[in-house]
Amino acid sequence: MKRDMALEVLKKHVTDEIVVAVYQTLFDWMAINPRDLNYVATGAMGQASSHGLGLALANPQKEVLVFDGDGSILMNLGSLVTIANAEPKNLHHFIFENGVYEVNGAHPIPGHKKVDFGAMAKAAGYRFVTVFSDIETFESEVTEFLKQPGPALAVMKIKAGEAYPRDYDYIHSALARKQFRRALQSS
Amino acid sequence: MEALKQARIQFIVSVPDIVTSNGLLWPISKDPEFKLVRVCKEDEGVSICGAMSYNKTRALLLMQQTGLMDSLNAIRAIGIDYQLPICMMVGLQGKEPHKLSSESSSYGVRIIQPVLDAMQIPYRVIEEPEDVQHISADIEKAYQTSSTFIFIIGRAPV
Fold first, then answer.
1. CA dihedral for B143, B39, A37, A30, sign (positive or negative)
2. What confidence tens digit (pLDDT) does each residue in A52-75 have?
3. In this structure, which topology does domain B2-153 adopt according to CATH?
């Protein structure tokens, strides 16, 4: 399944949700679905899931979608347990698994083809875990996945699609944070 | 705890710290006015507190200095670069009571204030009971100015 195709499917399901995304998935998502409720400033070192948890706990009336990376979640595996323990019903977590650190030279992640992120999330205590490997299944089942009470996790077995520009200046900018803050407080 | 309530702190995010365990974290865990988020690692807490601040939800990250040292990159990115109000209370495990941290026999204790100075992170040492009176105002200022602030807890609360 190509990542940009999966994001095109997700675009049809996103209205007023908060979307937290990282690295190439973020850059692709910003190109496919630019919107102020995209949370782009997660720092570094795999922190997207923790930002998602903070947003979910502080905004229980809003749905939070985290578009994580496999290399990113490996840097913050404990967050799976923290999230499962906090039990945010409004948090849906996607791990886009391509097996490489795509924006850092495409080196393989440790454990590629060995590590099972779904099993990890299940063992951590996530309420619902599934794996999507092809776009047809994803398109037909994503609605049902999003209906599951969180924390729920979908492992997305993906390949790179179109390479959208990597606008690091924007994601780390004060403007991006200001736009998100304003959109959140008025939503 | 009263100072934290006065500062309208709603969430406490924490990895347990032996200095503040009995005097703060255990009582907080039983106080319905606080929502406690137990995290596996302190850098998670930096992100959680930062994310919460976008809708003005106030949180405090409670941890030991070992967790602070482990979280410096997260604090650099989320607290300093992104200018978010990350308020932290950091217990100095191993510091001798009534001794300046700069005079501690523990290397891990002695380096904390120089590291914060190097990172230009504002902090206040909470050592004596009268120091507590500043906590609420410091948190208020951190949220008003959207900036990071650290309370260094030099000995167990009485």
1. positive
2. 999 999 999 999 999 999 999 999
3. Rossmann fold (3.40.50)
The minimum CA-CA distance between A57 and chain B, rounded to whole Å, is 8
Q: Phi/psi at B141 (nearest 5 deg)?
A: -65, -40
We report the CATH number of the domain holding residue A97 as 3.40.50.970
Cβ <8 Å between B74 and A47: yes
Query: What total number of domains does chain A contain?
Result: 1
CB B9 within 8 A of CB B60: yes
**Residue A155 in tokens:** 């492992």
> For residues A75 and B12, what is the distance between their CA atoms, to the nearest angstrom?
23
- Sketch the domain layout of chain B as residue ranges: 2-153
Give the mutation candidate from A36, A47, A172, A187 for the B interface (greatest B CB count, under 10 A).
A47
Query: Residue A102 has what pLDDT?
Result: 84
| Cα A113 from Cα A101, distance rounded (Å) | 14
**CA nearest to B124, candidates B155, B97, B79, B89:** B89
Contact A177 B44 (CB under 8 A): no
Give yes or no for a contact between B70 and B61, defined as CB atoms under 8 angstroms apart.
no
**Residues B95-112: pLDDT tens digits?**
998 889 999 999 999 999
The predicted structure's pLDDT at residue A37: 97
Contact B47 A59 (CB under 8 A): no
Which residues of chain A, if any, have pLDDT below 70?
A: none
Q: Are strands B87-91 and B149-153 parallel, antiparallel or unpaired?
A: parallel
Hunting for tokens 């999003």 — which residue is that?
A146
Q: pTM above the 0.95 mark? A: yes
